[in-house]
Amino acid sequence: MMFEHLVSFKFKENLDPQKEKELLETLWSFKNKIPGIVDLSAGVNVTEETDNVQGYTLGLRVTFEDQESLRQYGPHPLHQQFVKSLEGIIENVIVIDFPIVK
Questions:
Q1: pLDDT digits (tens, 9 = 90+) for 6-37
Q2: Pairing mode of beta strands 90-99, 56-64
Q3: Distance CA 36, CA 39 (A)
Q4: Is 39 left (phi over 0), alpha (psi -120 to 50) or beta?
């Protein structure tokens, strides 16, 4: 059964466009470099529901082959390198993981 991994990022202050671009490029690169990823999308929050943004400006969605692939993603060196790159700039992260039931 495939699993969906949703992440919303809230930064301590507005990121400059270059830093935002770097983070997105790193996230996009996961698709071809981390095993078990079926699909991935990431981007800047442009919702018109501005009352619901609550400072979360970057989003990530990853579809994994199965729950074990999701489990292996967390400790993967590329993921860990990305997590370290957030030190000092991240205020909060929301993560939601769920099985895709059809």
A1: 999 999 988 888 999 999 999 999 999 999 99
A2: unpaired
A3: 9
A4: beta
Residue (of 52, 48, 68) closest to 8 by Cα position:
52
Extents of the domains making up the chain? 3-99
Hey, what amino acid is at 15? L
Going from the C-alpha of 24 to that of each of 20, 67, 93, 102, the distances in angstroms are: 6, 24, 15, 29
Q: Which ranges of the chain does DSSP label H, i.e. alpha helix?
A: 17-33, 67-73, 77-85
Q: Kindly report the pTM of this predicted structure.
A: 0.93
3-99: CATH topology: Alpha-Beta Plaits (3.30.70)
